[in-house]
Amino acid sequence: MVQRTCLLLLAWMFTPAAGSAQAAPAPLRIGYSDWPGWVAWQIAIDKGWLRDAGLDVKFEWFDYSASMEAFAAGKIDGDCLTNGDALVVGAGGARNVMILITDYSNGNDMIVARPGITSLKDLKGKKIGIETGLVDHLLLLDGLKKQGMSQDDVTLVNSKTNETPQVLASGQVDAIGAWQPNSGLAMKALPGAHPVYTSAQSPGLIYDVLTVNPASIAGHRADYIKLIKVWDRVVSYINDPKTQDDAVQIMSARVGLTPPKYQLLLAGTHLISVAEANKIFVKADGLGSLYGSTQNADNFNVRNSVYKQAQKIDGYIEPALSASLP
Amino acid sequence: MIGILSFVLPVGLWSIVSYVPAVWHPQMMITDPGSVGYLDVGAHLARDAFEGEVAAAKQEARAAPKGVPANPIYLPSPGEVLKAFYTSFTTPPETKDGQWLHQSLWHSIRIIFWGYVISSLIGVPLGILCGAYAALARVNEPFVEFFRYLPAPAFGALMVAILGIYDGPKIAIIVIGTFFQQVLIIANTTRKLDPALLEAALTLGTRNRQLLTRVVVPGILPDLYRDQRILLGWAWTYLIVAELIGTTSGITWFITQQARYQHFPNVYAAIAMIGIIGLGTDMLLAVLGRHMFPWDRSLVKFA
Fold first, then answer.
1. Mean pLDDT, chain B, integer
2. A6, A64, A69: which to substitute to probe chain B, counting the most B Cβ within 10 Å?
3. Average pLDDT, integer, range A206-216
4. What is the span of the domain harbouring residue B42?
5. What are phi and psi of A202, to 5 degrees?
């Protein structure tokens, strides 16, 4: 009797799962993670737009840093990253080119100060909890620079971004730097806390992109152009007031939030249509161009020893695919 | 019976902290923000800050905020966790490619199962051989000793590079985390076999392989079985880090996503599920053990 049960249980274990492991590998695999500009892909996935476009693309959900590992290991063809992190992956040896700009942070990244501090200037000589070397460190430096200050005017306390709400509430720092949902949770954890600087004041400091393996472009150029076209459809679906509710419903479901809460996160993200992207793809200095923004990120990465060798920006950007669309 | 009591005590303590406001409740949950602009219904505010606002409002003859004492959101009450336990199973997957919670849990169980089976297929024979033959142990064990100190999650990126992004690297992490301990523990168990048994067998003319298959293995079997039970628990402790490698899957997807948005009742419910599955399996194995090794008195536990 006992033996029979054991055998049965074993047989059960051996039956193939319906899960992802056994699925036939799709020609193109793309990593995405929990950021509004990338969760947006879920709309195309759920609505079957990828198939409609004749694409065989599989989107794989990752923890953000796990997606970087998978891309670096060559296990996925493309990954959704910030332009600065595309450089980090590339400096580590995984060549990649940015072919699509999904969005830029438009307020989701914030420096949140405790009650009583009204501006970045008040932070002189104060402690700031921030995950050093990441995007919000860059945001802080950008803000300080505008006030004629520098990193030496404040004390940075290296804190994990997802722990910043507790760090601010503990009262051991005067401000924190984080992106949503952490920045919002920090304000909830310490009522009265408020943003003193946000990415809305510095649009283009951080672009979010789809970056792909150049070898994969060579074999799937037409597919990637179709994918960029699908993205344009996603952006219009989210921005159109008639369909926005449905879009937010799909996106919030992906991450386990209610639609009204997700609306807030979406408001802090500026999604970029192909037409707008083609303007950002024009080579120029300054944050209005992906080139200028990426150069800025490269300087920051080198200064903070994220990697040693400055990267050649031009090799990381491929505007031609997007430009081939009207 | 006493086993149940060991649960009653901590849960009782948790209930007291949750339901008796006088014990802890360092914050106030706002029920009416009054005239204080930055407060919302449901926001948590430290008690002294709340009292400060009330005093200020009274002094200026404004509407004072109202609230009830509350614990921080990362300590939900047993009732909330129980409710989350139920609703997380009954909530259908929200996206088309989503999974029900029981499907995620089953996925996790399979990861553990395979990691444990692969580890055991190599670890158990190797452990027994190391325990039986001192020469083999001397060759093998220093490296195993060295390797067992290496944190298994550190091999995540390497495993992704070798085995891809799906279940392969996750199973590999479980194997790395379990295997090296397994070899040492089983080798030790083998060494503890009563020397009188070996001597008697040698006197009776048993040699080499027969000694191993007829005396050593049967002799240590009940202890081996108990070691394997402990090691299964060991494998479970690697689950969360293992499932964060590659594509996010299984119960870990649920736990990390809920924690990211601070839905702590769901997080605790999921942790409890893992505990229940673990304890349940262990009790089942203990019962099976008593059937298989009726002569072993140390297995009478959990009767």
1. 89
2. A69
3. 95
4. 20-72
5. -145, 60
Say if residue B251 is in the same domain as residue B287: yes
Please give the pLDDT value at position B91: 86
**Which range among A20-34, A58-72, A182-196 shows the weakest confidence by mean pLDDT?**
A20-34
B38–A contact, CB cutoff 8 A: yes
User: B65 and B108 share a domain?
Assistant: no
- The label of the residue with tokens 């009262």 reads A171
Residues from chain A contacting residue B263 (CB–CB below 8 Å): 256
**Do B243 and B287 belong to one domain?**
yes
ipTM: 0.72
- Give the pLDDT confidence score for residue B253 in this predicted structure: 87
pTM: 0.81
Q: Specify the CATH number for A26-105+205-323; select among 3.40.190.10, 1.20.120.1200, 3.30.9.10, 3.30.540.10.
A: 3.40.190.10
Selected residue of B38, B44, B94, B264 to mutate for chain A interface (largest A Cβ count, 10 A): B94
